[in-house]
Amino acid sequence: MKAQVEKVWYWRVALIIGIAIVWHFSSGRLVNPLFISAPLDVLSRLWGLVVNGKLAYHASYTAFHAIAGFALGALAGTVVGITLGRMQRLALILDPFLMGFYSLPKIALAPLFILWFGVGTEMKVLFVAMIVFLLVFLNTYTGVRQVSREQITILRLMQASESQILRKVVLPSAITWMFAGLRLSVPYALIGAIMGEMLASNRGLGYLLSDATAQFDTAGAFAGLMAIIIMAVIFNALVRISERLAMPWKEMESERELSF
Amino acid sequence: MASDDNVTPLRSVQRAVVEFRGVEKRFHVNGTWNIAVEGIDLSVAQGQVVTLVGPSGCGKSTLLNMAAGMFPPSAGRVLYRGEDVVSLNTRVGYMTQQDHLLPWRTVFNNIALPLEIKGLSGAARDQRVRELIHLVGLEGFERYYPSQVSGGMKKRCALARLLAYDPEMLLMDEPFGALDAQMRLSLQVELLRISRQLGKTVLFVTHDLDEAIALAQRCVVFQGRPGRIAEVIEVDLPTERDLVGIRFDARYVQLTQQLWRLMAPELTSMAAQREKQS
């Protein structure tokens, strides 16, 4: 098993090197470097951004926008999801509105958010929060609705009170769904933050990216993209780790032997 | 008035814990009405162990569900201590076919759940859980999650949880089905002991015909589709039984034979013919 994992990693590294080599040799020969730059240029630009502290500066803004928005949206989504999940009638009334809102491309709301909240930090954080809220809310809501009725009945037979049922069955079983929503939200939080920064800002990785392309600085744009990818990988890892800490039984489920 | 530890069941209404009167239950499935059970008249007296046997799908679980107040009968009445069961009957403990353990709780914490609900905490709770874990033989598995243990262990965990909340009547739906012979026997012994000592009334669904006789004071035999009571076997064996020794008891053998004949008349007649020929 372990040897297999190692092998996979060899292949992954080989793939990256392969792509870099093809990129390196096609740049300037097959394609104009103005469009695709070159891997070494991108790396040196990225390194330059690291050394002069610009990367840390812009990344810290993006991280703040994404994380603050994520936290705000996740909290609101969880609370509203659980509440509506328990209030069937209200949920029924609100259902078409929520679905309509959910189907709307959230980017379309960005200009309104700028109008309402200006071009500052609040706008980005709230924009991210809105996107994350919808995802986490819908997942948590579904989770609460899908709690096993048998498990609830068994607890009722044990004379459990409503609050005990909520604490001992509903919340723990909704947590699985909540985390599904959180995991789904990570890329959207980044999209929201970067989108907001590209539209109206003078800092953040989104600004770095749009600024570089505006100056035909392809190496700078690719360096910005790489920084964004690295940030996304880190965020994903963080959610995964907290998922593992919050739901140890899930880990066990994936580790158990197959049972037929 | 008969003495308290009477071997034959008392039929008096006042002492019946659970009583089915002309009960029928229909379910609406795929546009047609499916009759699960009909014409059920059965009363279970205080402290009695009554077993229900019959082919799959003959509505035994449906009766248990109605006794637990999951749903009302379509016709007839289901009474608990003389009153109609109209909502969830919290005086019974129900061990269903599926264990319905909480997957996010370890074996230990699943068993502790009913005690937590009762407001028991700390050392008293842990002490009781350890006793129950010892009783069902789950030592060493306290910290495992349900997904990590075998089907038989899950059953034992569910049984321990049922005993933890100490209801006055036990509804059990094939509780010992997935267990090995030794574990099954030791839990059967335990169940009878609990029923005797604490006067627990037990309604017990099983597919094991030996178990159906060995545990019961009365064994109710069902026939399928729609489920009806075909016969009630009064098990006139002593209330205090040795579940190992009883297997060699002439009366026990006779009763199991009777049950086998009821359940599988073709098979038993074939066997009888073969015996005659040889």
Write up this protein:
The complex is a heterodimer of chains A (260) and B (278). Chain A has 260 residues and is mostly helical. Chain A has one domain: Orthogonal Bundle (MetI-like fold), CATH 1.10.3720. Chain A has 12 helices and no strands. Chain A is globular and about 75 Å long. Chain B is an alpha/beta fold and 278 residues long. Chain B folds into 2 domains: 13-91 and 167-236, Rossmann fold (3-Layer(aba) Sandwich); 104-166, no CATH class. Chain B contains 8 helices and 10 strands.
Supply the key terms:
heterodimer; A: 260 residues; mainly alpha; MetI-like fold; 12 helices; B: 278 residues; alpha/beta; Rossmann fold; 2 domains; six-stranded mixed beta sheet; four-stranded antiparallel beta sheet; 10 strands; 36% helix; disordered N terminus
Protein topology:
The complex is a heterodimer of chains A (260) and B (278).
Chain A: H1 2-26, H2 33-36, H3 39-51, H4 54-86, H5 88-103, H6 110-117, H7 121-145, H8 149-157, H9 162-199, H10 205-214, H11 218-246, H12 248-255
Helix pairs in contact in A: 3-11, 4-7, 4-9, 4-10, 6-7, 7-9, 8-9, 9-10, 9-11, 10-11
Chain B: E1 16-29, E2 32-45, E3 49-53, H1 60-67, E4 75-80, E5 83-84, E6 92-95, H2 107-118, H3 122-135, H4 151-164, E7 169-173, H5 181-198, E8 201-205, H6 209-215, E9 218-223, E10 228-234, H7 250-263, H8 265-277
Parallel strand pairs in B: 3-8, 3-9, 6-7, 7-8
Antiparallel strand pairs in B: 1-2, 1-4, 4-5, 9-10
